[in-house]
Amino acid sequence: VQLQASGGGLVQAGGSLRLSCVVSGSIFSLFVMGWYRQAPGKQRELVADITSAGDTNYADFVKGRFTISRDDAKDTVYLQMNSLKPEDAAVYYCAARTVFEQHFTRWGQGTQVTVSS
User: Fold this and answer.
1) For 50-64, how does the pLDDT look when each residue is reduced to its tens digit (9 = 90+)?
2) First-to-last CA distance in the chain?
3) In sequence order, what are the residues at sequence separation of 6 or more whose Cβ sits closer than 8 angstroms to the Cβ of residue 111?
4) Distance (Å, whole) CA 38 – CA 41
């Protein structure tokens, strides 16, 4: 399974970005998909995840600002990020797991998000 994330970049505080992650090599619709992030000197943390049924879960620090979605026809998961803050700057990773796995086991390469104040 390969996960290819894209969409990162430099944005001003208050701006928006949309991240995409395309999955290949397996049946995308079976996966629970997630977005994590890791800032310098900090641990990787879950941002949001979405089940194959479309049920979503968000970290408190992004609720109301970020939206995770998926398009099974395109084997793609998205993260729409609005009202970005400087503290949202990090490398964002997409991840996948099956419903039988407790942890995310398949990872993309990461995409850098930089937010200027």
Assistant:
1) 999 999 999 999 999
2) 37
3) 5, 6, 7, 8, 19, 91, 92, 93
4) 8
